[in-house]
Design brief:
Distance between the termini: 29 Å
Largest sheet: 5 strands, parallel
Strand order of the largest sheet: 2-1-3-4-5
Radius of gyration: 33 Å
Length: 374
């Protein structure tokens, strides 16, 4: 074991305690030991002394080794417990092992004590590794079940969202081949363009989904103003964009380090949603983008006065392929990708929305400018 071993001895005889220490010192073991002989001292030592191993006599003035072992197990300490006592029956010793003690020795034969401690610690290490492996396997299994469920949904939904616009374009092409009226031809072309835009949006969401799932996090200094402005520039030709007043409040005096690609994906999806779902019946449609950066976090707030989201739909909006409304193109991956990207960055997102009033997205992302890693 690395470092100094901490040994807690439940022993009411000082002489026997000294013999235990002498035996361990003679073996060359580096350790510190503490003797207790009452329930109260034992409970305190478990909390404050934090032993690596417990050596316990069976009969103590106030309680016995069986009770001490039970207390240790109830606290879920997983501390190796060795019975070191006078003469006991084989049946009693076997029962102690069944209850959870890792070994037992007689005080009249302590030569095996160093090897018993070494074996107990190796056993604990093996059990800890097994426990960690089982825990990791459980996490991986949960992730695999999630991936499989998402893959089934992904294949079905994407195939639909890719084929539907293509079938629409093919049908319109057949109609256009037989059409001689120029006005009708223009209408067909406009419908084809709409279908192609839906296809393009679906492909973009699929690429964003794939890159976010597979691409490693790359932390770099971020110019948050530039990321916002670049996304606004790319989205300026979206229908409805020019009728949306963009209000920015950016406090970026503190350096911000994170993954620029994922920050851009988050901003792009949330800004484009504000454009798609603006309320056509309102004269003063707006999107407020607020950013405050401190040494620990970047806090983002995107607030609009669009059509809003029904309260019953809010718990589902980050689900893969969920559509709160058909007033959109794409595969329905946008907000799912936003949440997945934020979780990759160890951040959080919270949404508030009311129908016909608007929506607020509250985001907090760790700032790694101090050089810490995720």
């Amino acid at each position: 074991m690395d470092g100094t071993l901490r040994i807690l001895c439940l022993e009411d005889q000082e002489d026997d305690f000294e013999i235990l220490n002498f035996t361990l010192e003679a073996s060359g073991l580096e350790f510190i030991s503490k003797r207790v002989d009452s329930r109260e001292e034992y409970l305190e030592a478990l909390e404050t002394f934090r032993p690596d191993i417990i050596l316990s006599d069976h009969a103590l003035p106030q309680f016995n080794s069986t009770e001490a072992l039970k207390i240790c197990q109830e606290q879920n300490n997983n501390i190796p417990f060795i019975l070191v006592t006078g003469a006991v029956s084989d049946e009693f010793a076997v029962n102690c092992i069944k209850l959870g003690a890792v070994d037992y020795l007689l005080k009249s034969s302590l030569s095996r004590l160093p090897s018993a401690i070494d074996g107990a610690l190796k056993h604990k290490k093996a059990e800890d590794e097994k426990s960690h492996a089982i825990s990791a396997l459980g996490v991986q299994n949960d992730q695999l079940l999630k991936i499989n469920a998402e893959l089934d949904s992904f294949v079905y939904s994407v195939s639909h969202n890719l084929r539907a616009p293509l079938m629409s374009v093919l049908g319109l092409l057949h109609l256009a081949e037989q059409e001689t009226n120029v006005t009708n031809m223009r209408a067909y072309h406009q419908m084809m363009e709409t279908s192609i835009q839906k296809l393009d949006e679906t492909l973009k969401e699929i690429l964003d989904y794939s890159r976010n799932a597979r691409q490693d996090i790359r932390n770099e200094p971020i110019e948050i103003r530039k990321i916002i402005d670049d996304n606004l520039s790319r989205l300026q030709f979206m229908p409805g964009f020019k009728s949306l007043q963009i209000i920015q409040s950016i406090d970026d005096t503190t350096p911000f380090v994170s993954d620029p690609y994922r920050i851009s994906v988050i901003m792009n999806n949330l800004i484009s949603n504000a454009v798609k779902y603006l309320d056509q019946g309102k004269e003063n449609s707006f999107l407020k983008i607020s950013v405050a950066i401190d040494p620990e976090y970047a806090t983002l707030l995107l607030e609009d006065n669009g059509i809003g989201i029904d309260h019953a739909q809010l718990p589902k909006i980050f689900d893969m392929f969920f559509r709160a409304t058909e007033q959109r193109e794409g595969a329905g991956l946008g907000l799912y990708i936003v949440k997945e990207a934020i979780e990759k960055l160890k951040g959080t997102i919270r949404v508030e929305s009311k129908t016909n009033q608007g929506t607020q997205f509250h985001i907090r992302i760790p700032n790694l400018a101090d050089g810490s890693s995720q």
